[in-house]
Amino acid sequence: MIEFQDLLDYCRAEALASKVSPTEDSVWRSICRDYSEMFHTPLHLVLQMDAEHVVLNVYEKQAEGLDIEDYQKLEYIMDVLRTIEDPNYEAVKSKEQEEFDRRAEEEEELRIKSGKAVHPTLQKQVDAKRLLEKGEPETPAKPTGGMVNLDYLAKQDSEG
C-alpha cells in the first residue's frame, strides 16, 4: 500500500509533468475542470460526458470574451508556433495565399466579362446601367393590376 506522502509526491510530479508536457489525458482533465467551473457541474459527471460537447462548450465560452484584436493576436501567435513546428509553413502559407488570390482574380474577370453583378440582388442595377450605356432608354414599369379606393374622399367632401 502506498504511503500518503508518496501519493502526494507522485501527484505533484504528475501535475508538473502534465504542465511541461501535456498528454491527452491531462488536457482532457483540464478541459473538464474548466467545464465544471463554468457550468457548475460536478467534475465526476463532466468526466463521463460526451467529449465533443464538453470541449466545444468550453471553447465557445472562452471565445465569447475575445474581440477582433484578440483573434488577430491569436492568429499571429498560431502562425509563429506553426512556423517553429514546420520550417516550410511560411512558404506553404504564401503559396496557398497566392493560389487563392489567383483564383479570386479569375472568378472576378469571368464575372465582369459575363456582366454579372457582384451580388444577385444588384443584377437589375447592372442591367439598367448596361442599357443606358448602349443608349437604349429604360422603359418605365407599368402597373400590372390593382386599384385605389377613393370613396373616403367623397365622404369627406359631403361632410365638409
Quick overview:
This protein is mainly α and 160 residues long. The protein has helices at residues 4-20, 24-39, 43-46, 51-64, 68-85, 89-114, 123-134, 151-159.
Fill in the keyword field for this structure.
160 residues; 0% strand; mainly alpha; elongated; 72% helix
Provide a descriptive summary of the structure in words:
With 160 residues, the protein is mainly α. The protein has a domain at 1-65. It is 72% helix and 0% strand. α2 crosses α4. The longest helix is centred in the middle third of the chain and has 26 residues, at 89-114.
Number of strands: 0
Rg measurement, Å = 33 Å
What's the pLDDT, averaged over the residues? 85
Order of helices and strands: HHHHHHHH
Instruction: Give the proportion of residues in helices.
Output: over 70%
Helix run count: 8
Class from secondary-structure proportions:
mainly alpha
Any chance you could write out the topology, listing elements then pairs?
Elements: H1 4-20, H2 24-39, H3 43-46, H4 51-64, H5 68-85, H6 89-114, H7 123-134, H8 151-159
